[in-house]
């Protein structure tokens, strides 16, 4: 090899050594720094070592993980902290993306030494942690659904609107939050899911339009011949109800309640009730009171007419009613066929003169007089007379209270009870309730008598025959010169040939104590009254013989001798 060739080869080798050294030197320089022009989201990191770049980015961006991420929907806002919600930054990956790190690629080395550009910060998302954080805020966006309501109040329609239920759509909101974080935005629009109320405004609109408003648009007028009755809108509203049935609100009118409410108003239709034939005293005998055929508006016909007019408008709110004729249950023919009534039981008792007796016994006889008792009916003296008050025409008289004679309004009425009890006894009627006095008074038949006290003791008997009866009652007033008397007669058709009483057998006589009552202005002196037991039977006669017997017994208390002292 020539000397020139060696010189050329040496020069080439030298150049290669020089270039190679420069290349290696450039590698080590570039491998320890980020490209000169590199930046991350506006933060310059060019020329820094990878570790330095990471530290720079961490210092700049770590505080942002403590800045709230705001979730909002409408007027509701709330925050989550990114660092607590699984959100973070990958600084190392970001530095690598910016060009940091070692490379033998000449182009990379050249880029590091002369180039670089803006890159995005690498963000990380732990979706499970983010979901937990978002779910924890869901309750703040929840709105309970409220059903629409409608009702009648004071004759008017009162309604409230519906509110749809609202809840966070967690899946959609998590996706939005992830995207917002990845794009570096601090606000997250919460996705809401709504559920319509079970009772909607549209349902209310429908029932108001088609039922409620027409119902109270005016009165319903029911007509019969030339007369009419009016049902006011307020009454219609009061009897109406609005109820949810499936996907509708159904309006209904309680015509049964409305029928009851309008009992007085129906009088305007001038309808008449059917009346059974009955009986009265006239000219000293029992005569038939003819039955009356009734014209009635039944509840069913009333309901049909009201239902037709209730939600109509204009003239259609006036409708004729269909009435029906009602025949009496007990006809004039049936009553007349009985023929003439006779007295089947009567009794008279006497009483000493006292103005209160004339008044109270007269009032009782007058009230009972004319009472008709149909077969199977029970007569009650308390129900017939009512409470013995001044307002009902009674005055104070003597009654037995705890073995003493004391004054009370209506005193003496027990004599009416005794007299009527005996009339029913001899008519053969069933004894339903009676109680003799606790003390014996000789103006009454022993044992066969009754006392009454309003609210606790009654005298009741049942017409247990096949024939109607009418009770006659009257008094012969007492005066200073004569005793008075009270008489009751029961007129009917006889079932028995006769009804009698056996002898009233007294036994077991005994006496009470002697008492002195001091300082009681209401005290009444009382003579001793002997106590004893009495037994007797009621005998029913038919075809000349006794066909039934009923035993009775009563024990009288002994009345104390009472002396009054001031």
TrEMBL record:
Q: Where is the YoaR-like putative peptidoglycan binding domain?
A: 89-184, 272-313
Write down what this protein is called.
VanW family protein
Keywords, alphabetical? Membrane, Transmembrane, Transmembrane helix
Which parts of the chain span the membrane according to its record? 7-30
Report the superkingdom from the record. Answer: Bacteria
Top-level taxonomy: Bacteria, Bacillati, Actinomycetota, Actinomycetes, Propionibacteriales
